Amino acid sequence: MEPSPGRHAVPGRAASPTQRRLDPDQVRRYVAASLGPSPRVTGCGPLDGGGFAAVWWVTLDDRREMVLKVGPPPHVPLLRYERGLVAAEARYLRRVAARAPAVPVPPLLHHGSDPELGDWLLTGRLPGRTVHELSRAGADTRRVRAEFGAALAALHRVTGDRYGYDGGRARGASWRAAFTAMLDGLLADATDWRVPLPVPAARIRALVDRHAAVLDAVRRPALVHFDGWAGNVLAVAGPDRELRLSGLVDGERHLHGDPLVDLVSPLLFRRAEDEPDDAFVRGYRAVAPVRLDAAARRRLGLYRLHLYLLMTVEMPSRGITARSDPGRVARLAELLDRELADLGRG
Q: pTM (2 decimals)?
């Protein structure tokens, strides 16, 4: 099980219903629609790991390497916050390039929208392998994870003009209002998709309301990546053979709010506040000192609840069932129970 809402494909599992079925001829059409008829596609193929969009690598006759990301067909039902994600990623890439150029994100080459082709992005292809893949191969990823923490701290210096999502999705005049709107959207999705939750939705909402005052400490809508698990972090070996950060990808789920949101996915299924010596946490705090006091811990608990709820609610839209992935279902239920229990005791 790949644990992120952004990339959780499992080898051998059928493609998600949200992913378009592409072939090389279709890829050529997207590239031509983006760059014109001159560059010729000399090679292409699907990239593994994603569960939402179709993602292919592309090489051109001028030796450029690119990534094509194509959004779902218009008739495919999505979660509320997923509407317009391809366009959202285009906005994210433009903003990071302009406001946080030290953060290594793919260069946006073209964002297209067409009644027949749908929404798509063409970006440059960054070098490297994912930290998730490298870790599973036994590589020492401490340095690159520290650099990743520092990069997120740099990203968080960018301030938005709203809290929550853009593009007409859940937002608010305050972080408390935006976060509760985001949660309400997920609970409504759970009802629409008939997703069984460990406790009634009203109980979840009541627990969040009980602790929502801690969200008022957030007074600036920082740009938050949200999906910074190890499968979205790229690394290459430097001259000293140590792994170095080469890219941060899949920013379509970005939002504006509390920087602490970004301390959840990088330590997925763990707790940042309990691991102050983790390389990622040290890298982040070296650039953006943050006190993980009782109020901050409560906020982190709310953000973990939100993430585990999202990962639970999205399963039907991805074609995931308890039969196809029982380990995911059981683990998320356990994690949700833990966070709910902690909120209940708080």
A: 0.94
